[in-house]
Amino acid sequence: MNLADHILTIVTFLPTVGALLLLLVPGRGASTDNLVRSIALIVTLVNFALTLWLWAMFDNSNPGFQFVENYPWIGESIGYRMGVDGISILFVVLSAFLLPFCVLSSWNSITYRVREYMIVFLILETLIIGVFATLDLAMFYVFFEGSLIPMFLIIGIWGGARRIQASYKFFFYTFVGSVLMLLAIMAMYWQAGTLDIQRLLAFEFSPEIQTWLWLAFFASFAVKMPMWPFHRWLPEAHVEAPTAGSVILAAVLLKLGGYGFIRFSLAMFPDASLQFQSFVFVLSIAAIIVTSLIAFVQTDIKKLIAYSSVAHMGFVTMGIFAGNELGVQGAVFQMISHGIVSGALFLCVGVVYDRMHTREIEAYGGLVERMPRYAFAFMVFTMANVGLPGTSGFVGEFLTMLGTFQVSTWAAFGAAFGVIFSACYGLWLYRKVIFGALTKDSLKGILDLDRREMVVLVPLILLTILFGFYPAPILDVTAGSVELLVNNFAAATGNVPAVAAMAP
């Protein structure tokens, strides 16, 4: 068997095989828990290595889908179809990259039902990668909705004091929106006679039908990201989730909505996307400005970072619906960068929470005196979060604003205000936690990053800086697929891309 012919199946379902393996580990107790952790770590590392091989074998010059697997299931309409293009492959790699860090960050903090915890995370990895790798709309819906269940369990079982309320709120918000998407998928099947995503991309839906389909998909993706004002579930879910749960929620699960907007809304419903462009811009700017102001008055570190995530997703939706290469490229880059930076910020919160068992900002101050390595790591990720040049956060925000400026100066102007606000709350948080006098007795014995925490944070620091100075590894992969998408969008809507219009 040629590995390349089935690499996506292997990458998608290897974590589930690992979960089944954990069920066979006999016994209970500390030694068994350590064995379970080790097996889960090995499985996630092997899977990440396979995604790196997938990335290395990917042909950047081919804008279409690669590593395609196609096995009909119900006639020719519904089948097991897998494949990745220059957009989806990066999210597959990102998902596999973060799972080993989730396992390592939970090594000491999760002490009960360890086997079940690792099983749930491994199954979640399968479902997330499946979303990005599938080329069948029915399978997409199964993977997309299935990812709710493991996260529901992670928050509800291993979360904080209000975990039950947070988990049900998370499930209710995200599930209700997706019911409309299911109805839209049925309507698409009746129209096109297939759920093959490749064939649907070539099918022309009438402008009237596009409007209703766009709204139905929007109801699901807007909640999943989440866009303002559909974000009410997110801060509470982040606060109550364990550290690894917050990492995977912010770094990957929020990206399912953005990926859906690119793959379906922009690509399959171009007329409706152009029709609702101003509407999306308004919600995006509101998300950037309003949630930044809300973040500034938070007293809980996790909740502040959660609101920050909503603001940064505003740049993503703004860039996507700009409908040009700069905007979409910037949106994809911003999602990848945010996956690294936001995940790292939640890991930093977990470091001090494991030591002090509080996330209240006022409980800290002067940590630089006792935790200089931690102060440096937290500084890098804070600077990236506020979009400092030289970090990955700057590249995504700059490209989305540049792409948006070509179609809407007022939207780009509003987004620029959000950059200023993010610097305000980001630097304020860093000053309150890291600088100042170390006056609190509870902090005088706090220890700096240990070896395991360094192993987790150092790779994230390096990537944050690397992609800030050298974004080509990401932009080169996405360029061909984004260009094809934007050209198809322009042809369908009759709009000439702004870059092409300015060319001599």
Automatic annotation (TrEMBL):
<dbReference type="InterPro" id="IPR003918">
    <property type="entry name" value="NADH_UbQ_OxRdtase"/>
</dbReference>
<keyword id="KW-0812">Transmembrane</keyword>
<feature type="transmembrane region" description="Helical">
    <location>
        <begin position="6"/>
        <end position="27"/>
    </location>
</feature>
<feature type="domain" description="NADH:quinone oxidoreductase/Mrp antiporter transmembrane">
    <location>
        <begin position="136"/>
        <end position="420"/>
    </location>
</feature>
<keyword id="KW-1133">Transmembrane helix</keyword>
<dbReference type="Pfam" id="PF01059">
    <property type="entry name" value="Oxidored_q5_N"/>
</dbReference>
<dbReference type="GO" id="GO:0015990">
    <property type="term" value="P:electron transport coupled proton transport"/>
</dbReference>
<feature type="transmembrane region" description="Helical">
    <location>
        <begin position="39"/>
        <end position="58"/>
    </location>
</feature>
<protein>
    <submittedName>
        <fullName>NADH-quinone oxidoreductase subunit M</fullName>
        <ecNumber>1.6.5.11</ecNumber>
    </submittedName>
</protein>
<feature type="transmembrane region" description="Helical">
    <location>
        <begin position="304"/>
        <end position="323"/>
    </location>
</feature>
<dbReference type="Pfam" id="PF00361">
    <property type="entry name" value="Proton_antipo_M"/>
</dbReference>
<feature type="transmembrane region" description="Helical">
    <location>
        <begin position="374"/>
        <end position="395"/>
    </location>
</feature>
<dbReference type="GO" id="GO:0008137">
    <property type="term" value="F:NADH dehydrogenase (ubiquinone) activity"/>
</dbReference>
<feature type="transmembrane region" description="Helical">
    <location>
        <begin position="454"/>
        <end position="472"/>
    </location>
</feature>
<dbReference type="GO" id="GO:0012505">
    <property type="term" value="C:endomembrane system"/>
</dbReference>
<feature type="transmembrane region" description="Helical">
    <location>
        <begin position="116"/>
        <end position="133"/>
    </location>
</feature>
<feature type="domain" description="NADH:ubiquinone oxidoreductase chain 4 N-terminal">
    <location>
        <begin position="73"/>
        <end position="129"/>
    </location>
</feature>
<feature type="transmembrane region" description="Helical">
    <location>
        <begin position="139"/>
        <end position="158"/>
    </location>
</feature>
<comment type="similarity">
    <text>Belongs to the complex I subunit 4 family.</text>
</comment>
<keyword id="KW-0472">Membrane</keyword>
<keyword id="KW-0520">NAD</keyword>
<dbReference type="InterPro" id="IPR000260">
    <property type="entry name" value="NADH4_N"/>
</dbReference>
<dbReference type="GO" id="GO:0003954">
    <property type="term" value="F:NADH dehydrogenase activity"/>
</dbReference>
<dbReference type="GO" id="GO:0048039">
    <property type="term" value="F:ubiquinone binding"/>
</dbReference>
<feature type="transmembrane region" description="Helical">
    <location>
        <begin position="170"/>
        <end position="192"/>
    </location>
</feature>
<feature type="transmembrane region" description="Helical">
    <location>
        <begin position="274"/>
        <end position="297"/>
    </location>
</feature>
<dbReference type="InterPro" id="IPR010227">
    <property type="entry name" value="NADH_Q_OxRdtase_chainM/4"/>
</dbReference>
<keyword id="KW-1278">Translocase</keyword>
<feature type="transmembrane region" description="Helical">
    <location>
        <begin position="242"/>
        <end position="262"/>
    </location>
</feature>
<keyword id="KW-0560">Oxidoreductase</keyword>
<feature type="transmembrane region" description="Helical">
    <location>
        <begin position="407"/>
        <end position="430"/>
    </location>
</feature>
<feature type="transmembrane region" description="Helical">
    <location>
        <begin position="212"/>
        <end position="230"/>
    </location>
</feature>
<feature type="transmembrane region" description="Helical">
    <location>
        <begin position="78"/>
        <end position="104"/>
    </location>
</feature>
<dbReference type="GO" id="GO:0042773">
    <property type="term" value="P:ATP synthesis coupled electron transport"/>
</dbReference>
<feature type="transmembrane region" description="Helical">
    <location>
        <begin position="335"/>
        <end position="353"/>
    </location>
</feature>
<dbReference type="InterPro" id="IPR001750">
    <property type="entry name" value="ND/Mrp_TM"/>
</dbReference>
<dbReference type="GO" id="GO:0016020">
    <property type="term" value="C:membrane"/>
</dbReference>
